[in-house]
Design a protein that fits this description.
This protein is mainly α. About 65% of the residues lie in helices and about 0% in strands. It has two domains: about 270 residues, no CATH class; about 60 residues, no CATH class. Helix 1 packs antiparallel against helix 2, helix 7 runs antiparallel to helix 9 and helix 9 crosses helix 12.
Amino acid sequence: MGMVRVALALAVVLSHLPLASYKFLSGGLAVQAFFIVSGFYMALVLDGKYKDVGLFYSNRLLRLFPTYFVIVVLTVIAIYGFNASATLNPELIDRILQNPVSTIVLAIENIVMVGQEMLFWFSIDENGALVWDPRGPLPDDNTVVGWQGLFVPQAWSLSMELMFYALAPWLARAGWKWIAAICAASIALRLSGALIDVDYLLWQGRLFPTALFLFLLGMLAHKLLPFAAKLPKAAGWAIALAVLTFIVVFPLLGWTDVRMRWAVYAIFALTTPFIFAAFKDNALDRWIGDLSYPIYMTQLLVIGVVLTYEPPYAVWIAIFGTIAASVLVMLLIDHPLDRWRQRRAAARQEPAAAPGAASVAPL
């Protein structure tokens, strides 16, 4: 799954890069595809392998938070040292600090991540107050949205991941019928947003209950793994190539109708077990996949610098700069921490995760 995960991460990078003349799969759909992949991997590692729920939780936190805090620190340095940020600046920080409630809320959100997706439902007024807007405020010259007060705004998806991790051990034990029932309830709640006076894109993309079904689709897809493992690896390679092509050429398909999202969800849910089965023992693919989380986390930091200084070949510098920064993060932070996580798990005679089970999400 490594190459697919990196392709999804690059799709998010391109969606956040206004200078890019060509995009891949839309950033929103790429993140939702990551949720499906995350659900698959969590079902995999919880399939009778994690007997200690506390170990599962602590290893998930160790997977996400150290890299996140490093990016927060680097973003603060970029803002105050170079006035370089894609979303935040010292003036906005000063505005937020005028309001004690906003200061406390955003300080907490920048530390714990959980709940960051809800900031998309708020604007920040001229006095720094957070103002609820069910229609979904959009950032422009006159409107500042709540998420712009985050140092790493793309971490809203990690909030969703963390909430799913909290439920995952219990969902894994519940059996596929319960998972399917909860999945159906989440889909029904998602569709109900069309009947109420809210921004539907926010309703379906920035609320955990309406996005939960994506993780559950991944957990259900895990049930296909025994069948996928019986197929020749060549079949998985062919499926992976088809999915990679789909990610890259998606804008050319003309799938603009919102209903086509369901086809995208089906594609990733149905193909993930087959791609995993074909590549699970491929060390190079695993190494490539380990870049997906750092790419996702470093992207706006690098893009902010590029947009501030506007170098020649800005798009290519943003893309390759993000990849270079991601390699450093992976080698200096993620891999050493992963080895420690593996030792912690080995001490309790439990695998920390299946090969390649890191998510961005996300992964």
